[in-house]
Specification:
alpha/beta
């Protein structure tokens, strides 16, 4: 069962049929977001009973877009640990510092969440072949879930993607096409294949359902904090699905009456200095991003020259009274080592970037010592071992 009603354009509000294959609003070139009947859900769902269901993303099935339970594809994603960084927090004078460690997901990254839901809905809608551009991790996740669902998969990724990502995408049966350039070029080629050959494009925000899997990170945070929310979330932002998804999830939890407080977290969007279109737009007051030329960073997941959902990302950062900032690769590597030696967590470069950002924000006085702060480590550091050895 699902309380999904329809899809709505995030820009103009136009409704789209959720029971037909959809991509994005053709008029606004903006993402579609799933809309649920939270009034009905509020009458019949009990948050505490849901929490006693088997662990994982699908415990929240009524607030996810798949109607038939037989179409729910899972590899055990979700319910990742929220760990207190006691030792590191003590060095910074931050007693309420946490990390949500997404490396515990299948394929080792948070991408599993979004692709689990997107592939499930694709199968329900009768889609049989899917294509995606990726910096590495999304392609690996899509390939794994497509294999489990019995779908054909094609992945376009930059030639300099982490070798582990290339191998795991190939071993799960996907056709892998390595391209010169960034994910921007990979996206252009994936879109062409979709148009020319009828494959369904699962690019970030060019279909409506990856964000639904990511919003569950917000549900899990609320549950972990006894239905309150932390004061600050520090999140690495490439395509921005998780940032948008959590903010959407918080709105749904409010509509359901499940939160014990009305205050939402301040969102911190972290990018790499070598590719920071969101930071540039945020600082200039622009409602959208410009294409970032010559994008480069060791954190391949942050090498997104222009996110498709740029208007949503910027809007939600500003609504939250948050901030966007960039950190350079050397600072990322230093933070990665400090996190590993202090807390035993070998974070991916994107996750380590959140710690680097925290240190910068504290130096600015932006962080309060009593704030509950959640960093997101989005994947396993060891997947980047070939890049780190260069």
């Amino acid at each position: 069962m699902t309380y999904l009603q329809d899809l709505k354009c995030s820009q103009c509000g136009k409704s789209f049929d959720a029971w037909r294959v959809q991509s994005y609003c053709p008029d606004c070139q903006a993402p579609l977001l799933a809309d649920y009947d939270t009034d009905k859900a509020r009458q019949s769902l009990d948050r505490d009973r849901l929490c006693h269901r088997p662990r994982g993303t699908w415990r929240w099935q009524e607030l996810l877009p798949v109607l038939d339970k037989s179409n729910q594809i899972s590899l055990g994603e979700g319910d990742t640990p929220l760990l207190r960084l006691s030792r590191f927090g003590a060095t910074l004078g931050l007693p309420h510092l946490y990390i949500k460690d997404e490396s515990f997901n299948p394929t080792g990254t948070f991408k599993a969440r979004g692709l689990a839901v997107a592939i499930s809905k694709a199968r329900e809608l009768g889609i049989r072949q899917v294509v995606i551009p990726t910096a590495g991790n999304a392609g690996a996740a899509m390939a794994a879930y497509a294999a489990r669902a019995g779908l054909k998969a094609c992945v376009y990724m930059p030639k300099d993607s982490p070798h582990a990502n290339i191998l795991e995408t190939q071993i799960t049966g996907a056709q892998v096409v390595l391209v010169d350039g960034s994910i921007y070029e990979a996206g252009r080629l994936a879109a062409k294949k979709a148009l020319d050959e009828g494959w369904f494009d699962l690019s970030t925000f060019k279909e409506p359902y990856r964000v639904e899997g990511k919003k569950i990170m917000g549900y899990e945070l609320a549950q972990a904090f006894n239905w309150e929310l932390p004061e600050v979330i520090i999140y690495p932002t490439g395509g921005g699905t998780g940032l948008v998804g959590m903010w959407k999830g918080f709105a749904e939890l409010e509509a359901l009456g499940w939160l014990e407080t009305k205050s939402r977290p301040r969102l911190v969007s972290v990018q790499a200095a070598g590719c920071a279109p969101v930071v540039k737009a945020f600082n200039s007051g622009s409602p959208n991003c410009e294409l970032w030329l010559d994008a480069h960073t060791i954190a391949s997941g942050l090498r997104v020259p222009k996110p498709f959902a740029d208007r949503l990302i910027l809007r939600f950062i500003r609504e939250s009274q948050g901030i966007a900032l960039a950190v350079d690769d050397q600072t990322i590597l230093e933070a990665q080592r400090r996190l590993a030696t202090t807390e035993g967590i070998f974070a991916c470069p994107e996750g380590a970037a959140t710690l680097a950002a925290l240190i910068s924000l504290q130096a600015r006085g932006w962080i309060n010592s009593q704030d509950r702060i959640v960093l997101f480590n989005t994947g396993l550091g060891i997947k980047y071992i070939d890049l780190l050895q260069r």
